[in-house]
Amino acid sequence: MKIIDKIALVLVIIGAIVWGLIGLFNFNLVEMIFGNMTLMSRIIYILVGISGLWAIKLLFDRD
Q1: 2, 15, 16, 34: which could join 40 in a potential S-S bond, CB 3.0 to 4.6 Å?
Q2: What is the DSSP letter of 63?
Q3: Within 13 Å of residue 48, how many CA atoms lie on the same side as its CB?
């Protein structure tokens, strides 16, 4: 597994944890740490979204 695949996988896992916290407890960890839609929180959301798209590729890798 390439390093970019591992980074994407870690970010997807972080995103899943954040969504789990929102669903279970109505608690947004990203907002708590970085603020409500600040530049940094938006970057985090963008990176997690891109990682989710990258993870689709991992489904079809034969390596």
Answers
A1: 34
A2: -
A3: 15
Task: Read off the tokens for 30.
Answer: 């990203």
Cα separation, 50 vs 5, whole angstroms: 12
Q: Are 16 and 24 in contact (CB under 8 A)?
A: no
Q: Which two tokens stand for residue 18?
A: 């954040």
Whether 15 has a pLDDT exceeding 80, the answer reads yes
Q: Using one digit for the tens of pLDDT, what is the confidence trace for 20-63?
A: 999 999 999 999 999 999 999 999 999 999 999 999 998 888 76
